[in-house]
Design a protein that fits this description.
This protein is α+β, with helices and mostly antiparallel strands. It has a domain of about 120 residues: Jelly Rolls, CATH 2.60.120.10. The chain is built from nine helices and eight strands. The strands form two sheets. Strands 1-8-3-6 form a four-stranded antiparallel β-sheet. Strands 2-7-4-5 form a four-stranded antiparallel β-sheet. A hairpin with a 5-residue loop joins strand 4 and strand 5. Helix 4 crosses helix 5. The chain is globular. InterPro entries: cNMP-bd_dom, cNMP-bd_dom_sf, RmlC-like_jellyroll.
């Protein structure tokens, strides 16, 4: 188990023995989803947090006029769920679906609670991941508020160059908060 990708991911923050990792992994399940398949739909309760082994996903919502707004993309080694719904066990306000075929590990809310109580290392791991998530969210909000479309596009390209080979420009435009036409005018 020393080369399991999840172990490698967790060990970026905390060190684990093989036995500890086996215990952690026993709390997860594996699932495969096809392109366009939902992990979560608006109104459902997010009872799972997903770790992406392979594939690309998006979390998004539709405004009152039916326009799609992408909140997050998720690729290999990223975590994804509706965190408000997951933590509060309330109805989701977002959708999550697959942009590509995906291989995922997931942990249920119940198993995550159990694991953090039984293993303080994992409590520290998720606390640190949560802090990193808040930093990323803060930077995204700041970028939306202060940067031009061109600056936001270039920053996204710099941070996640592989995303541009995997995600249609229409979805990139939605993530940046502009129309596909605006994006095309800037980069044609």
């Amino acid at each position: 188990m020393t080369h399991h990708p999840l172990k490698k991911h967790i060990e970026e923050i905390i060190k684990l023995t093989d036995e500890e990792f086996e215990f952690i992994l026993s709390h997860f399940e594996t699932t495969n989803k096809r392109k366009h398949q939902y992990l979560l739909q608006d109104g459902e309760i997010a009872d799972k947090e997903y770790w992406i082994v392979k594939g690309c996903l998006k979390s998004y919502f539709f405004d009152e006029s039916g326009k799609e707004h992408i909140l997050q993309f998720g690729m290999e080694n990223w975590w994804i769920t509706d965190y408000e719904s997951f933590v509060k066990q309330s109805k989701s306000k977002i959708n999550i679906d697959c942009i590509e075929d995906c291989e995922l590990l997931y942990i249920t809310f119940e198993n995550r609670e159990k694991l953090t109580k039984e293993m303080h290392k994992m409590e520290r791991f998720w606390a640190k991941k949560s802090k990193f998530g808040r930093i990323a969210l803060q930077n995204r909000i700041l970028s939306l508020l202060k940067n031009s479309t061109k600056e936001r596009y270039e920053l996204l390209l710099e941070q996640y160059p592989k995303l541009f080979h995997r995600v249609p420009k229409k979805l990139i435009a939605s993530y940046l908060g502009v129309s596909r036409e605006t994006l095309s005018r800037l980069y044609s």
